[in-house]
Each structure stands twice: as C-alpha cells, then as structure tokens.
Amino acid sequence: MLARLLRKPGRMGPVTGLSSRLLVMTVFFVMLVEVFVYAPSVARFRVDWLEQRVSAAQLTVIALEATPDASVTVELANRLLDQVGAHAIVVPPTATSVRRGIFRDMPPAMDVSLDLRDPGFFTLISDAFGTLIHGGERVLWVKANAPSLVGGRVDLLIDEAPLRRAMIAFSWRILGLSLLISFLTAALIFVTLRWMIVRPLREIARSMIRFKENPEDASRSEAPSARSDEIGLVRRELAAMEATVRQALRQRARLAALGEAVTRINHDLRNILTTVSLLSDRLSGSDDPDVRRVSPTLMAAIDRAVQLCQRTLDFAREGGPLLKRSRFALAALVEELKPILSAPNGREFTLENAVDPALEIEADRDLIFRVLSNLGHNAAAAGAARVTVTATVEGGQTMISVTDDGPGLPPKAIANLFQPFAGAGRSGGTGLGLAIARELMRAHGGDATLVRSDASGTVFRLRLPIAEGAAAPQ
C-alpha cells in the first residue's frame, strides 16, 4: 500500500484504502461470530417452542382429569387440541394408571419421533437445522417430561410446519440484529482505527513523499511524535532517519565539491611538487653538509604532501575501489610495513609481526597493505611505541587484529570513528585513514571495527571473508 501511495501521491480508491478494508473485515468477522452464535440460539428457540406446547398439553391433561369421568365431548377435545396445536395428547400408562389422553378423529401418521427428556447439545442443533431444511411437512411425535402428571411424562403429536415458521421468523430477527450489531461495531472500530492508525499512517506516507521530492529541504521533515505506542515510535524513527539521510546527503555534497576542487588543483599541485622534487634532488648533491642533511626531510615532506592530496582525491572520487585479487602470505605483507612505519620526532617505534607465516589470504594486496599502513601510521602518530599484528581464522573469516600500546583514542574520536573529517584521533588529522580503511575492507566483503580503546592501548579488528576453495592453514 505504501508503495502505491509513493507512486500516486494523494490518490486512493474507495475499496483499496485501508479504512475500507478494515470496515469490510470487521463486518465479516462479526457476522462469522454471529453464525456460530446462531446455531445454538435457534436450537434453544426450537426447544423452548416445543416445551411451551408440552406445558399447554400438561394443563389440558390436568383439566381432563378434573372432569367427573375423565372424558370430554369431541368438540371440546378438538378445541383443546387446537389450543395446544397438537393432533393428540397422550399420557403413557404406568404400573398404577392406564393410558389416557385426547385425540382427533383421524390423526395423521407420525414421521419423526423426538425425545426432549435428555437431549444432547449437538443433537439439538442437528434437529433444528433438520426442521429448517425439510420444509416443515413432517408430523412429530414429541416425548417430554411432565412433573405435574402421574407417571411424569406426556407425548404430543404435532405438525412441524408451525415450528418451522416460528424458527424462520426467529432467524430473520437474529439476522437483522446481527447486521445491526455488525455495522455498529464496524463503524465504531472504523472510526477508532481511522483516527488512531490510518490517519497517522497517511501522515507518515505524505511525509515520506515530501521527503522523497526534496530530501535536502529541512522544512519537509517529519515532526517527532509524543505518542508512546508503535505509531509514535515509527514517526520518531522516521524523523531520525530523515535527519541522518539529510546529513549524509549534505556531507556527500561537500565531499563531491571537495573532490571536484581537488581534481582541479591536483594537476597544478603535482607540477609544482614535481618541480620542488627536482630541486630537492639537486640539493641532495650539494657540497653543503647542512643542505644534504635536511634534503631527506624535505623530500619526505613533499612525498607526504603528494600522498595526502592523492588520498583525499581517491576518497572523494565516486565509486568503490577496483579490486585486483591475488593469493599471498599475510606475514610477508606485514614485513613490508616495517621500513615505512616510524614514530614522529624520532621516538622509538616497533612493529611486531605475529602472523603465522603459513597463513595466506586472497585479496587485493596493495589495498590490504594500505589498510594496515593507515592503522600503523595512526598508532605511531597517536603515541604508540609498539604495534602488534596478529591473525586467526574463525568461522570462514580471517580476523586480523592490530594492537598498539598507545594512550587510547579520545571520546570524541570514538564517537565519530570511521567518519571522514570527523574521526581524527589527534590534532591536525583528517580522519580519512580509518574511513578509507573501512571502505577498503567493505569492498572486500569484510569490515573494520574498533574492539577497544583505553589507557592500555587500542585494538582494531579487520574481518576478511575466506574465498571459496581457499584452505585455512594447518
């Protein structure tokens, strides 16, 4: 339904709307419940109707026994039978009494015998529907308890047609009442759900449509709801999601602008740095020992400037890195990091390679080198004296841990970790190193995460899926 709303804003058919479906479903389910209520109700009505005839028959027998010779004229007998609605009323004989009762001159033959003395629940329901289905043409012989008569029993011979007409009239009354209850209940539920659910959902849908039309317009944001139920939770989460997406779009626009600017100046900057590099090479051959001494430092500074420019350009460029996978020993790659990692200001720094020499991974060698280099440079710049690289294989994943003994990351850096230009852990940093490391690991189908960072040091974990068919080291 939401997708339909997003395709056609503001348009909703009278039948396809959620409100209409709720109305129809409510009426349907209430009527379904009424069907289950109707079956025992019509069976009870049938028993009550028959028991009324039994009560009238008891009174007739009592009046008959009050006569001097327990007999009446044929005309009076017919009138009494008409009053009861029966063709015959019979009191079966007992050990102390004979059979007695009144009959019409030519009573019809019995079709069905009914015993009301100990009926079962499902038997009553089955007999009731039998009366409705068979058309009322049968003649019933009804056996019932009669506590006020000698022998405690009375039998009646009656037509089924009056009973069936009364049951049909009762059914119509039940149907009318059920429809009234259904529509009243449906109307109340419809209004309640429309106010509590449908209306807020439509507002959420309209907010999503407005956000889709112009995500960067803050005036189109979903207002956080004060409701404490699921609808309120959805609106609050939607408002938070829109704010996050808007912030990401703005950051992406800034990065795109930055990438465009760096692209434009990159060519000129490289030419300038190339000229400076050539001059630095000539300075390294100078006879002045002081000039020769500062030349390597100058060259290193120029190289770092070129690398920073290129790294910023690579990060701002759209599209993920192109992987050139190969299979190589991870320990050998870590060994290549040792000559290029050093602490600033000449501090002592050690890279410990604790990776199993037999462990091989399948990945882009240059990109994994770049990831480890970024983490190593960050650790050295943060004040670490030792960085240890270990690796294990766990559940189809190669887990590479980079542990340092530095002072740990500041809380602000941890809160914005892996975010470019926001997650720098030291003064003057850009935060691009960790952002690029995570991007490169995710390009391999893995990830880069922070395990811990405290006064004892910092641990980063790199997760790299093992390629199919690759064997783990024995």
Automatic annotation (TrEMBL):
| Enzyme class (EC, first level) | transferase
One term under GO cellular component = plasma membrane
Listed SUPFAM superfamilies: ATPase domain of HSP90 chaperone/DNA topoisomerase II/histidine kinase (SSF55874), Homodimeric domain of signal transducing histidine kinase (SSF47384)
**Topology of this chain in the membrane:** Multi-pass membrane protein
Q: Which residues form the Histidine kinase domain?
A: 264-468
Matching entries from InterPro entries are given as: 2C_sensor_his_kinase, HATPase_C_sf, HATPase_dom, His_kinase_dom, HisK_dim/P_dom, HisK_dim/P_sf, Sig_transdc_His_kin-like_C
Q: Which residues cross the membrane?
A: 20-39, 174-197
Q: Which PROSITE patterns does the record cross-reference, listed alphabetically?
A: HIS_KIN
**Keyword terms:** ATP-binding, Cell membrane, Kinase, Membrane, Nucleotide-binding, Phosphoprotein, Transferase, Transmembrane, Transmembrane helix
**Catalyzed reactions:** ATP + protein L-histidine = ADP + protein N-phospho-L-histidine
Q: What is its main location?
A: membrane
Tell me where in or outside the cell this protein is found.
Answer: Cell membrane
Q: Which Gene3D superfamilies match?
A: 1.10.287.130, 6.10.340.10, Histidine kinase-like ATPase, C-terminal domain
Q: Which SMART domains match?
A: HATPase_c, HisKA
What EC number(s) does its UniProt record assign? 2.7.13.3
Q: Name one GO molecular function term.
A: ATP binding
Protein name as catalogued: histidine kinase
- This protein's species is Stella humosa
Q: What is the lineage of its organism?
A: Bacteria, Pseudomonadati, Pseudomonadota, Alphaproteobacteria, Rhodospirillales
